[in-house]
Design a protein that fits this description.
alpha/beta, 36% helix, STAS/SEC14 domain-containing protein, six-stranded mixed beta sheet, two-stranded parallel ribbon
Length: 123
């Protein structure tokens, strides 16, 4: 891990080619919070591709418009949701409709990281 960032709504683990985010329980994520991801992407991945992993261990809600904004990050090459909770998986399947880049749902982090690394290696 390169860095660990803590915000009022989440924690972000920064690695060489990806971010793992854990959103706090009970949060409602809106477009304004997307600016945090944009700033982190510009700071840590300015000249390189990266992928984003959402570690869904907590219960929270998300405005689907966030995905439209996240899709605009040019060097973001993929997004994965990691959860074994049926409700979170169902929400993630709906959210996928709002995102136009590679997107996949996993039950474990290791598989998600391997998937993201494959995307990085093939871009």
């Amino acid at each position: 891990m390169r860095d660990l960032l803590t915000f009022d709504f989440c924690q972000m683990e920064i690695y060489d080619n990806h971010i793992i985010t854990t959103i706090n329980d009970g949060e409602h994520i809106v477009v304004e919070q997307h600016k945090v991801l944009l700033d982190v992407a510009q700071t840590y991945f300015k000249n390189s591709n990266f992928f984003y992993l959402s570690n869904r261990i907590n219960s929270y809600s998300l405005d689907p418009k966030v995905y439209y904004q996240v899709s605009k990050i040019e060097n973001l090459v993929g997004l994965a949701i990691i959860s074994d909770n049926n409700k979170a998986i169902g929400n993630a399947q709906i959210e996928k409709l709002f995102y136009n880049k590679p997107y996949k749902i996993f039950s474990n982090m290791k598989e998600a990281i391997e998937w993201g690394n494959d995307i990085i290696n093939n871009t």
